[in-house]
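Anyone else keep sequences and structure tokens together like this?

Example one:
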Amino acid sequence: MGRVLLASLMTAPGAAVGQKPDVYILAGQSNMSGRGLLADLRPDEKVVDPGIMLYGNDGRWRPALDPLDDATGQVDEVSSDNALPAVGPGLTFARTLRRQQRRPITLVPCAKGGSSISRWKPDESRSSLFGSCIARVKEAGGRLAGILWYQGESDAETPSAEAEQWPRRFSEMVAAFRDRLSAPRLPILFVRIGDRPDNKGDFAKFPSWTLIQSLQSNVHLRCVFMVDAGGLPRKEDRLHLTTGAQRILGERLEVVTIAARQQNCQ
């Protein structure tokens, strides 16, 4: 089982007395932060599950509802997004997982739209994406259960020589998260970037798209699992996933989470 974060952990609001919540980090760039339309949420997706809590960017607890990643009252400016808060895969993931288990869940959003893998270089400072995320996870407490990671589109915009650094930087980041959080077998579920954007000019804008896809397909690290975003519906920009696509992705992430536990990753 996953090792406990810190000696004096708090129990998240909404958790059963004496039961520490499973904590999931939502990290990466815009498709993890979420760009699906709030207007496309179903009525049942607007109902609170008291067993799923959010430790927000503002350092406050609340029942988890979309949008999870909201820059309002942001404590650490480094991860603030200019885009309107919207729908990512995190809440569907948590709701689906809750149907398989009754343990409470805490979600900690750390994603930053447009961030390249180099922006996630391990750095203890709260002025860095990595350092800010680590600090907020430790503040949240609980039982660290996994990281959901969706990133790579920004690296697909770079020349091949730069894009080819993605696997090394990803591996270093994974090792650093596990080290800082004392969780050597922490499951990392990463999403392989989806279909190549095909609007006019996109081929030139994303010269390394297929390279990043190939590099991500060939990641082989202990307790690191890939989920494919290929074929999922996209918005008109042909880059960001629709609300329906994020729903499907959240369900896929849950399936892989259950499989990870069966491989003694936690």
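And example two:
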Amino acid sequence: MKVMITLGPTREPIDSVRFITNASSGKMGASLAEEALSRGHEVTIVAGPVNINLPDSARIYSIDTTDKMINTVLKELERGYDILISTAAISDYSPEFHYGKISSRKEELTIRLKQNPKLTEWVRRSYPDLFIVAFKAEYDISDKELINRGHSKLVNEDLNLVVANDIKKNKFGSDQTDAYIIKPNKDKIYINKCTKRKLSTRIWDIIEDMLNENQ
């Protein structure tokens, strides 16, 4: 199957030299790509700015901003794909851009933010039959609320699977994590703390089982 995986952060420029971003390492997406390749799938990666090794046998696009991430994904999907796995920590907001460098002499600075579009919503509008997996990161909430928010994302964005975790317990860049894998009927599978490669194996087992059930 043809698989596209997004990974890493995006950067949203404040001015010509500064930007806002997050600490996503891209390790989860890279692990999913490695697992997909080991199963014989054809893999394309759309990566934000990361400092990790990505598999040589994948097609790789490097981007920085949310707009570039969305445009690259939509353009590449025209080549025909079976699965999109969106692990990228895409910025929810972007600042109003100021050309040049904002003076550092200002004692206070107000930055206006506007909401960015959701990648998976744009993709679903154009590709109603694509199997879409998305990740949902939250911070310091109960397991019940984490599951509810993950399921709400799945329903609202018409996804096939959501992987939800709490980044207070599983910090960006760590090699281990735990997660809830949430299906459309709200069935949930809890994966206790393990390596990201082991979690990738479980996610791929579930994806392939779901696709086989639908054949």
